[in-house]
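Cross-posted from the bioinformatics board.
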Amino acid sequence: MNDFENLSISSALEGLTNKKFTCLELTEYFIQRIENNKDLNCFITSTFDKAVEMAKVSDQKIKENKTRLLEGIPIGMKDLFCTNGVRTTAGSKILENFVPFYESTVSNNLWNSGAIMLGKTNMDEFAMGSANTTSFFGNVKNPLGSKVNKELVPGGSSGGSASAVSSGLCLGSTGSDTGGSIRQPASFCGLVGLKPTYGRCSRFGMIAFASSLDQAGPITKTVEDSALMLQAMVSFDKRDSTSSRQSIPDFSDFKKLSIKGKRIGIPKEYMIDGLNSDIKKVWDSGISWFKSEGAEILEISLPHTKSALPTYYIIAPAEASANLARYDGIRYGFRHSADDLNDLYQKTRGLGFGKEVKRRLMIGTYVLSAGYYDAYYLKALKVRKLISQDFEDSFQKCDLILTPTTPNVAFPIGEKQTNPIEMYLNDVLTVPASLAGLPAISVPSGFNSEKLPIGLQLIGKPFDEISILAAGALIEESRGFK
Amino acid sequence: MSIFDRKNYFYPDLPQGYQISQFEYPIVGKGYINIEIEGKVKKIGITRLHLEQDAGKSLHDQDIKNSYIDLNRSGCALMEIVSEPDLSSPIEAAEYVKKLRSILRYIGSCDGNMEKGNLRADVNVSVKREGEKLGTRCEIKNVNSIKFIQQAIEFEAKRQVNIIESGEEIIQETRLFDPNKCETRSMRSKEESHDYRYFPDPDLPPLIISDEKVNSLKEKLPELPDEKKDRFMREFNLSSYDAEVIVNDQSTALFFEKLVKGRDSKVVTNWITGEIFSYLKKINKDIKNAGIAPEKIGSLIDLIVDEKISNRQAKEVFEEYMESSDDATIFIEKKGLVQLSDPSEIYKLIDKVLSDNPKMVDDYKSGKDKLFGFFIGQIMKISKGKASPKIVNELLIKRLKE
């Protein structure tokens, strides 16, 4: 038996093309891994039969020398991406039995690149959460918790995706990031999480949370894998009016890009109260790595940073309140029996949605209501403009921005559950880039005293994923661990 | 710049739970169109034109227990054109919708088929005493014919007048028109109205329409009904009424222009509005999809003008002619309809009738003018209707004077 435990996507591709092992062997290995680690609760639905079928096709392609970009790579698909004929729940009771009859563009692109679907990964309900504790299908465990003998959260909302890659149940997975849902769990699980520029990945078939923020991206073990998966996921799609027509580069070109002479901005506003001291230390180390590679470090100011979180928690719920209106029990999904139409709506939505989703729907409905719209929603739109402007101004002076991904490391399951604001603070360092639609990557950069992983975030100019990948690779080389 | 908004409300025939519409920045702003009422032109203001998604249709009368939803139209794009409160009678409303429909068809943005629901009117009606401000309005939803629009307004205005005259007040509400009973009924009152929580649709970026685009569209605009009408009156000497009838439909206008080339415009107009319109009505087609070639009609008209066939005969055989693939000359020959207009042939007929009736000829010459008609009748009879009445007339007068 081959040693598959330490495989990355790139090393697996190498092994497959060199015929060291077959896709079927690889796939069956991961199927076994998933079966043996059910307690992590990473998957809502497994698709093993499909995986085996796909693996056979890939083996045939390899035989015929017709390999595609991700030929034979078993991955997890966040349960937010509609998969044709495969149940797609968004982590919600209201879609518990929903089987789409169409495929999301992102997942379709991945299958067309030869990736293999092991299953649909667990997530916070409708991607609303930062700990993967709001899923109707139960919370996901962070595999790194065993290191400290605690049950830790994997982060969220793409918690199942991150935990699955971290625990070696698949080689990579898809996530979606609205305010940090890729970067934060990647950071908590010691992985690379990339949120591309808004518009890079089509949102068609990706169950909407907040349309102006949602963006798909990969969660992987390495920066190289991240570039590979990203390449397969992106496309212009006329079925998504916000999909970008910007030309798509060869993301592996990040390897050719030197950081020497690049100007790295360090935003002083990210030095927030409550930033974990271990994380601060890792951030300082990060700065020194860039310095020693010949990058120029400069302090920058993003003055509206402190308004980003409240702005986000107005805009995202407002959009969600409309996006989730379709789950009304009339056409598909959960329906509760009722006496009349209003009763049907109330019972279906009251029982079909979880507490956090309902909280955000109420916030969203409130901020759009007559009399409150100007004070909340309209104002938030204006502040969002200012936040984008901050970044635009900074990118006149620097090429990249380096920050921590999260103010804290992974916390025990059950913590931060009583006060939603405390939970929302998890996103404080990731939402500004989301609001500005900028590409950002979280790369494992160090550990706290308990050996829990700490991620640093790199934020790039619009459509400049290559630079953040290159800078991420520099961190990988400099951090002193594999 | 034009922005799409979400209008939020729950209803089973609205699958998304919101309707994509336009609130603050519609795609088209203020404008006007002219209508003609009793020969006078009246300007009707257009407030705006915005785009939105059509909803589905709830059907409550198909089953005792269940309601059904028809989603066929759901999500289709529609234009909503809002007019200013400038219309002051049912007939004005009807003329407005007719003119609007004609323009939309000219531009090609809507086929204007009201029966199929492709053009519908939400009719807002209010009444007031002379000199007073506009009264409280009621909206009659989804009226789907011009006749119904008039009937709905007539009923609704009377209803409101009765309410006011009995000392009560109009309650603003949405009403339905029932064409069977010819009355309007309350659907829902304003108090039940929602807070629609309009906000810009984050799925759809703002639509930026450049001046160049607007100008290029302007250049591509076809000649619209009003301009065309003016030109037809000028160029072809048409009456206002005839011109209106001809230009109302673009294909008819095009057909007219092709047909009138080198022909008398009055004759052409009469044929189009007479025989052709009634033929189209009979076969239930319009001039475009009936596929009538202008030349087919033109060659028939030419035969009449050249007196190869009489107008009456042409009308009699018109339908048959339309069904046949023969050209006009061959058709009338086959039918044996070729008009006799050769003077020597006609003289022969005249002479035969006169020599057969010597007494009558004497009587005529001694002053019995009425016998002229008798001779004509006899001549036409022996020509089996083929002789040109006009030539028979001319030649008979000549002969009798000899």
